[in-house]
Amino acid sequence: MGKVIMYSSVSVDGFVADENDQPGPLFDWLTSGDVALDESGVLKVSRASYDYIRPYWDQIGVTVVGRHVFDLTDGWDGKPPGGMDHLVVVTHRPAPDGWDPDAPFHFVDGIEAAVAKAQELAGDRLVEVAAGDVGGQVLAAGLVDEVRMDVVPVIFGAGKRYFGSVHAQHLLEDPDVVLQSDRVLHLRYQVRH
């Protein structure tokens, strides 16, 4: 089975969105470079960010998100973001009325079941878990192997926390990647088990 990685862009003070669920400048680094990150041509990053992010994206088989993010994005119009094959949505509610049953989205109740479904779908590819409440719950359950952060030089002061509502201590190894790029610092930590 593929590794489970918790990931997001994050403010210096640890937030993935402001109090109104807005990312503010957290994703500006994805459009401020000169190297196309995908075929759309919209995402352009520095060469250093491309060399770090593109191989990672190519390894992701499934992304796990919470229902809140799914609703905020209107389900990405039934197409998983970033070219993922599947997206697993952690929710206690069924798919929205009128949802296309053939869309590669899987609505699963509970984080353990969501990670199991994601690993089944991903095979030996990576399972990415969006940071925030769901990511924090997956970390607290001991199911995260690695934490990746794209730290953006902004301070929100308040908002949606990277680790959600995690209140217990969790030890990470020393960072095995610390990569400075344009308007972002890429960090990668293995989780101690």
Can you give a write-up of this model?
- By secondary structure, the chain is α/β, with parallel strands linked by helices.
- The chain has one domain (4-29, 61-173): Dihydrofolate Reductase, subunit A (3-Layer(aba) Sandwich).
- The chain is 20% helix and 30% strand.
- The chain is built from 4 helices and 12 strands, in the order E-E-E-E-H-E-H-E-E-H-E-H-E-E-E-E.
- Helix 2 (67-72) links the parallel strand 5 and strand 6 (86-90).
- It starts with a strand and ends with a strand.
Topology, number of strands: 12
Taking Cα atoms only, what radius of gyration do you get, to the nearest Å?
16 Å
Oligomer: single chain
The appropriate CATH architecture is: 3-Layer(aba) Sandwich
Mean pLDDT: 95
* CATH homologous superfamily (4th level) name: Dihydrofolate Reductase, subunit A
Structural features:
single chain; 193 residues; alpha/beta; Dihydrofolate Reductase, subunit A; 12 strands; 20% helix; globular; Dihydrofolate reductase
Q: In a few lines, what is going on in this structure?
A:
One of its GO terms (molecular function) is 5-amino-6-(5-phosphoribosylamino)uracil reductase activity. By secondary structure, this protein is of the alpha/beta class. The chain has helices at residues 47-59, 67-72, 111-122, 133-140, and strands spanning 4-11, 15-17, 35-36, 44-45, 60-66, 86-90, 105-108, 126-130, 146-152, 160-161, 177-181, 184-190.
